[in-house]
Specification:
mainly alpha; DNA polymerase, domain 1; hpI Integrase, Chain A; about 55% helix
């Protein structure tokens, strides 16, 4: 299964209460029952592997003897190592789901995380590009110095026009682009599918890439369903999307660091700034909870305050 996580855990044949036996089953549960995205499951696997490794005391060697103190000690140790509040919060989320799974499986008599409070994350406003910088970024691919400039321009255009994630862009198929309707089909987190409108200029960039460069990237190899291809004619990886975006951001806005998610933030902020309603933006971004989308209202409020301060006579 291409979307599964391979994990070899020592002691996989040990009794159910042993730490090594339960983790692979829990990761399968996250995929099959919870529908968590692959990257989320990878992060949870790292967090839980570190947590289980911390259970070195004899009284904590078996999960049926797990205590709240075991979890609290691990979180304090994580914080002492310099992990951010966001990282500690994610580690607790992974452990919390794991402990609930232990209770469901009858391994642990109670949920030892039920009294642990999630650390409050500083509500940082997402970084966005100005419309001027966004236009400069879209114009950055240059046929004179970039061999695959048509592919790169198509990638940047779709990221900005549709606000999709790097992994979603890498997973786009040619058949996902509907030129006649002006939309793309996106497979998001947890396998959730959504339809996102795309600006005509972005569709034009995609068409130019399909007509004049995608065949060159295939270089005689059998065709593939993926839209964006690497120089070897394979699917463009998520890491490649990050690399390409950062390369052109450095060129278009020297001294600035930004990645694909900055374009996603810019997309959402631009929509709200020009009058889009929050529910529509939520649907286009693929957020399961509208609270995740609401951060962009704060971004727009900050922009309006800056305008007010600059232009109001008593600003």
């Amino acid at each position: 299964m291409p979307n599964s996580l391979a994990l070899t855990t020592p002691g996989a044949s040990s009794p159910p209460g042993e730490t090594g036996a339960i983790l692979p089953g829990f990761l399968d549960y996250l995929q099959a029952e919870c529908g968590l995205a692959l990257n989320t499951r990878k992060a949870y696997r790292r967090d839980l592997t570190a947590f289980l490794a911390s259970l070195a005391r004899p009284t904590a060697a078996r999960l049926d003897r797990l205590t709240t103190a075991d979890v609290a000690d691990f979180l304090r140790y994580s914080k002492a190592r310099g992990h951010s509040v966001a990282t500690v919060a994610r580690e607790l989320a992974a452990i919390r789901m794991f402990c609930r799974h232990l209770v469901l499986q009858g391994i642990c008599p109670r949920d030892v995380c039920d009294v642990i409070v999630t650390p409050k994350k500083w509500n940082r406003l997402p970084e966005v590009l100005s419309e001027r910088d966004a236009e400069a970024l879209l114009a950055a691919p240059d046929p004179g110095q970039d061999r695959h400039w048509l592919r790169d321009r198509a990638l940047l255009a779709v990221l900005y026009a549709a606000g999709i994630r790097a992994s979603e862009a890498a997973g786009l198929k040619v058949s996902d682009v509907n030129f006649s309707l002006g939309v793309i089909r996106v497979l998001g987190k947890g396998g959730r599918e959504r339809i996102v409108p795309v600006a005509e200029r972005a569709l034009y960039a995609v068409r130019q890439y399909l007509d004049h460069q995608r065949g060159e990237l295939l270089a005689g190899k059998a065709d593939r369903p993926e839209l964006l291809l690497s120089r070897n004619g394979r699917r463009l990886a998520r890491q490649d999307v990050f690399r390409i975006v950062r390369q052109y951001v450095r060129r278009a806005t020297p001294g600035r660091q930004a990645g694909p998610h900055t374009l996603r933030h810019t997309f959402a902020t631009a929509l709200l700034s020009h009058g889009a309603d929050l529910r529509s933006v939520q649907e286009m971004l693929g957020h399961a909870d509208i609270a995740t989308t609401q951060v962009y209202t704060h971004v727009d409020a900050a922009r309006l305050r800056a305008i007010h301060k600059k232009f109001h006579p008593r600003g």
